[in-house]
Design goal:
Length: 66
């Protein structure tokens, strides 16, 4: 099973929770808007990915698994 991570930069409010939860997958640009470092984070704990989704106050993060 592989995960695909997407973040909607238009709705991101720069809270940074995703970066605090999973800094290997998420970063923020100079304006604080989310940047996905690893769209296909193989080997990353799925529970942490799910936590990043839940912790985002803007609902900007989507994780799909195939
Ligand atoms: S937690 Fe959500 S709102 Fe905060 S930086 Fe990450 S994507 Fe943006």
């Amino acid at each position: 099973m592989s995960a695909h991570v997407r973040a909607d930069r238009d709705v991101c409010i720069g809270a940074g929770n995703c970066v605090m939860t999973l800094g290997s997958v998420f970063d923020q640009d100079d304006d604080g808007v989310v940047v996905v470092l690893q769209p296909h984070p193989d080997g990353v704990d799925p529970e942490l990915l799910q936590r990043a989704v839940v912790m985002c106050p803007a609902g900007a993060i989507t994780v799909t698994t195939t």
